[in-house]
Design brief:
about 55 residues, alpha+beta, three-stranded antiparallel beta sheet, 2 helices, about 20% helix, about 35% strand, flat
Length: about 55
Amino acid sequence: MTLLRLLKLLKLTVVRKNSIFEVYKMNNKNSIKDKNKENIHYFEVYKLNIKGANE
């Protein structure tokens, strides 16, 4: 199973900015109604710095 497939099963969203991956997890089921709005407070944000992990 690939990492992206696992993240999809966990209903996580990954955003890549250069070498930094941001993983978002919905906290609130009601936020699905507002999915067109950018309500970042509905998400827990995990930042994975790939460059820093190799050093």
